[in-house]
Amino acid sequence: MAYQALYRVWRPQTFIDVVGQEHVTKTLQNALLQQKISHAYLFSGPRGTGKTSAAKILAKAINCERAPVSEPCNECAACLGITNGTISDVLEFDAASNSRVEEMRDVLDKVRFAPTSVNYKVYIIDEVHMLSISAFNALLKTLEEPPKHVIFILATTEPHKIPLTIISRCQRFDFKRITAGSIVKRMKLIVEETGIDCDERALQLIARAADGGMRDALSLLDQAISYSQDRVSIEDALTVTGSVSQGFLNKLAKAFRDKDVASGLAALDELLYHGKDPMRFIEDLIFFYRDMLLFKTAPTLEESLERVLLDDEFRMIAETIPMEQIYQLIELLNKTQQEMRWTNHPRIFLEVAIVKLCQMEVTQTAPSQPAEMEQLLTRIGQLETELQHLKANGVAAPSQDAGPQPQKQAQRSSKKVFQPQVGKINEVLKQATKSDLNVIKANWGELRASLLKSQAALLNDAEPIAASSSAFIIKFKHEMICQMAMNRADFLDAVIAALYKLTGKSFILLGVPEDQWLPIRESFLSSQHGEEGEISESSKEEEPHITEAKKLFGAEFVEIID
Predict the structure, then answer these.
(1) CA 360 to chain centre
(2) Which helix (H) or strand (E) holds 215?
């Protein structure tokens, strides 16, 4: 028999095997025992967290010959048939490859027929967000008036793309990312059962690289087993995951601390010589200092560390680096990561960042408020003493009724004009789509509500006007507000973090004043030689009713408001 991947062999067959989703499995088990089964369920969450597996287990438990039970027996004909896929009443439908309304109607036409082998027909629709609008409408009619013998289980990684009319008719369960500790525990069980010799640190590295997905972790473990000889070592895990070893990161951290530019650049050359990806390296470096910051502030929360293993060398380095320097390191690395996304030569930005990090001077914190207040009060007392001394010597302060004083010529302050990042804006416009912009607009209200009042005030007269899969553009009504927003790092970080929490995607924010947006857009459209750009605003051609209004009232009296 052909070899099967680990994630297929060890696919959960009972609710207790679904790792890290106890809030979901407990609810479903109680519903099964109490016979309170809904006609439709929506399982949403990141990839590889057990959505489809839980759907199959639920289908088996509902149709088990020993029902009502909290776990399928996996011994009766119904359970074995569903596991093997030989029972046609339990259908697993892939919406990614069958997104048209015709395929959905072929499935729904058979809904009204009673099941032949088990008690309930169960339709598991995977990646349901890929269905077309017409297919969703066809599914909606069946969800409104479902037959008593039919249960729908919808699984998706992007619930925001599903119409609200569908979501409101389902019981929704949100699957969360699995913790690294739970993944390691599951992988230990697997390697012990299969008799594979594996280093525990390698399992921890694989679990952290899986980013919360059990399927990804088992795939990486499978790959590491194939790559290794007799024992899966930490070097094998580093090779298959593409990560940078912690010893290498410790070496770089020492170079930054000791301001050793030569050692930092030599370590970078060694890294790139071994074929490591620069983007993956800088991500690992950011997480390294993120974990160091958490370790210094909350050393007991070891589970919250993403990439670091707490060895003696890491603890020693963490004790010698001040908090202010960690903040500056993370900020510079984050800016470098954003700049590397827009260039064809990321190595240059990486080398410049290494040199800057080695030459960085730690900014001292400002003096405490009581000390500043004491200095201010001392200075005020000195000025009052000098003023009394002047009055005693007959020097009077100038009154407001005195004659006109010679006015000094007002010096005009040079106004600094805000310069938008035209190159990056054009890159966003080239890749912009209406669907990406709709995602931003759909979450715009919740995004503003989640910000601080001072941050949300900057968006009062602003709106998103174009978006791609990785960046979006905001148009500000006033240039001063745009410049103020784009220069505030806390505002940019807050908007990006709030949007990531709402959509699960990391976007880059670009700002442009309203009076500069039109020339940028016209320049972009002219450079595309008449091709339609994926931007959100209407095309350059004027609509007929606007032209007629200008003829009747005059162009100077017509104002067009989007």
Answers:
(1) 29
(2) helix 214-227
Residue 161 has which token pair? Answer: 């793309």
Residue 495's CB is within 10 A of a number of other CB atoms, namely 23
Q: Roughly what angle, to the nearest 10 degrees, separates helices 51-63 and 22-33?
A: 10
**Residue whose structure tokens are 């001040």:** 322
Do 139 and 168 fall within a single domain?
yes
Q: What is the CATH number of the domain that holds 353?
A: 1.20.272.10
Q: What is the pLDDT of residues 432-480, one digit of tens each?
A: 888 888 888 888 888 888 888 878 888 888 889 999 888 999 998 888 8
Q: Which one of 115, 147, 174 terminates a domain?
A: 174
Tell me the whole-structure pTM to 2 decimals. Answer: 0.58
Tens of pLDDT, residue by residue over 17-69, are 999 899 999 999 999 999 999 999 999 999 999 999 999 999 999 999 988 89
358, 260 Cβ separation under 8 angstroms: yes
- Separation CA 60–CA 524 (nearest Å): 56
End residue of a domain, out of 124, 155, 174:
174
User: Are the beta carbons of 434 and 534 closer than 8 angstroms?
Assistant: yes
390-410 pLDDT, tens per residue?
Answer: 776 665 555 444 444 444 444
How many domains, in total, are found in the chain?
4
Residue 107 lies in a domain: yes
Which structural domain, as residue segments, surrounds residue 93? 6-174
DSSP 489-546: HHHHHHHHHHHHHHHS---EEEEEEHHHHHHHHHHHHHHTTTPPP--SSPPSSPPHHH
HEC-encoded secondary structure of 29-90: HHHHHCCCCCCEEEEECCCCCCHHHHHHHHHHHHHCCCCCCCCCCCCCHHHHHHHHCCCCCE
DSSP 323-379: HHHHHHHHHHHHHHHHHHTT-S-HHHHHHHHHHHHHHPPPPPPPPPHHHHHHHHHHH
Q: Which amino acid is at 311?
A: D
- For 519, residues 6+ apart whose C-beta sits below 8 A from its C-beta are none
